[in-house]
Amino acid sequence: MPHVITQSCCSDGSCVYACPVNCIHPSPDEPGFATAEMLYIDPVACVDCGACVSACPVGAIAPDTRLEPAQLPFIELNAAFYPKREGKLPPTSKLAPVLEAPVVRRRSKAPLTVAIVGSGPAAMYAADELLTQKGVRVNVFEKLPTPYGLARAGVAPDHQHTKRVTTLFDKIAARRGFSFYLNVEVGSDVTHDELLEHHHAVLYAVGSPTDRRLDVDGIGLPGTATATEVVAWYNGHPDFAGLTVDLNTEQVVIIGNGNVALDVARILTMDPDVLSRTDIADHALQALRSSRVREVVIAARRGPAASAFTLPELIGLTSTGDVVLDAADHERVLADLSTETDPLTRNKLEVLSGLGDASAPITRPRIRFAYQLTPRRVLGTDSAQGIQFEVTGTDDVAQISTGLVLTSIGYRGVPIRGLPFDESAAVVPNDGGRVLDPATGAPLPGSYVAGWIKRGPTGFIGTNKSCATETVHNLVADYNDGLLSEPAHTGSALDRFVRGRQPAVIDAAGWKAIDAAETARGGGVRPRAKFSSVAEMLEAAADVPAPPVHRRLLAGLRR
Ligand code: NAP
């Protein structure tokens, strides 16, 4: 009864370190880790102890006998990662090497104090790593009144397993030494230099808050948007609650076929009754209930073997939805299969080759993968009426009628006030998370990055764990080497300063009140019914009873 890793694998590697026999790979220290689509359990070496199940923050692991029917392909997928062997080999009984926690050499003055900007996965994993050391203080600044970045506003609402990682983040936020400063925008409410006056270092984990734009005629017409905007819309992000997503069209076209495109296509074709049991935003659920969409076409400029989506997501999509290919694309899949040698790509192609035919009548909203389509222009004068493609590598033109064109060609980082920016890669130039001055190539003292703003918008939630760990190790090394200036202000001065700038700052108690109010609004049927305006969030946060005076005094003393 070996254990099996399934679709929601977040790749944070916690299972690897929990496994007593080192049967989960690639581990974070192995070369394939950075590019792996998920982690895999060796069914021969697994001793069924279940330690990985407890360690996994997203409930992605189960014994093979307890899988849902849709998860059964993952048994073969896990096994396929390991070479075929004759007979049962003994487990290695060797623990995966854990990167030692960074040892902070404490000074007599103030303890190491770090401001983290952003509160998504990279920020929370960085806080976790810093707080492995006693006495370290971490203050997390977030523009929204709610924390957790893409774990809250990026993961699709039908992927509640993946969202479970927020339970881990709640635990990190409850650790001694951790403080939230939510509803505070760094760059406008407080500046980078001001944060440095109160901290030894500022670590930016702000992600890639916008997206790459497709530069073709007609983009920008009503009826065009980006998939990432739609993701933020259906997830109740306050900045996108008012987005017009007109679903009064039978066909939607998504350009690009990464996992974001799959998420959006799935949500647009899913039964709204199923979604009504998730934390999807109310406005999105309402729009989906009156949707006329019958088909979402996911159009890629290259062929099937170059598909950007991952195999676990493809398996998840095809096991629950109606996904088809037209005859020409079936041919392309078979042609690619006849030459492809990479086992992972072959697996993807095999799943694609088993898809239904697009000529079949549409009986329920469905998804169609389409290949070799390079977008040329969006058709229409006042609003999108269709999209014209060049059949890649030919002079042929193809056209699809649609009232909604969504581009899904990747996220993009934006410059951070006070820090250098690499325009072409859309990241902050850095070496292992140390921000570099482009003029001299030397590190900028006290400035660090982690997550997508450090390495670009790729990978899964847990990929940010090893990314943040690397940054924190370098930060601590710089502190130990005396390279970080002592902050000019310490203790409760920060609280007073931030409140002076943003009186509506939300702390951990305020977030707990918002969290409880959203959960209560879910009525036990949904995990939560999200607030999608800042005003509602602030109102819910205001319901927190003020802590008794002795607790406030004690909190002041602890700082
Ligand atoms: P992505 O995986 O980088 O896919 C981008 C897509 O856009 C590719 O198909 C790419 O095609 C296409 N593209 C780029 N420029 C184009 C152009 N000018 N014209 C037409 N097509 C163009 O990006 P993503 O989907 O935004 O995902 C970002 C990251 O988040 C990925 O690592 C993804 O795995 C991760 N993610 C994971 C999950 C999950 O695990 N459930 C969910 C969402 C996101 P080419 O390949 O031809 O360039």
Automatic annotation (TrEMBL):
Catalytic activity: 2 reduced [2Fe-2S]-[ferredoxin] + NADP(+) + H(+) = 2 oxidized [2Fe-2S]-[ferredoxin] + NADPH
Species name: Mycolicibacterium chubuense (strain NBB4)
GO MF: ferredoxin-NADP+ reductase activity; iron-sulfur cluster binding; metal ion binding
Lineage: Bacteria, Bacillati, Actinomycetota, Actinomycetes, Mycobacteriales
Entry annotated with the keyword Chaperone: no
Main EC class the enzyme belongs to: oxidoreductase
Ranges where the 4Fe-4S ferredoxin-type domain occurs: 1-29, 37-66
EC code: 1.18.1.2
Record InterPro entries: 4Fe4S_Fe-S-bd (IPR017896), 4Fe4S_Fe_S_CS (IPR017900), FAD/NAD-bd_sf (IPR036188), FAD/NAD-binding_dom (IPR023753), Ferredox_Rdtase (IPR055275)
Protein name: ferredoxin--NADP(+) reductase
Keyword list, A-Z: FAD, Flavoprotein, Iron, Iron-sulfur, Metal-binding, NADP, Oxidoreductase
Cofactors that this protein relies on: FAD
UniProt keyword annotation of Oxidoreductase present: yes
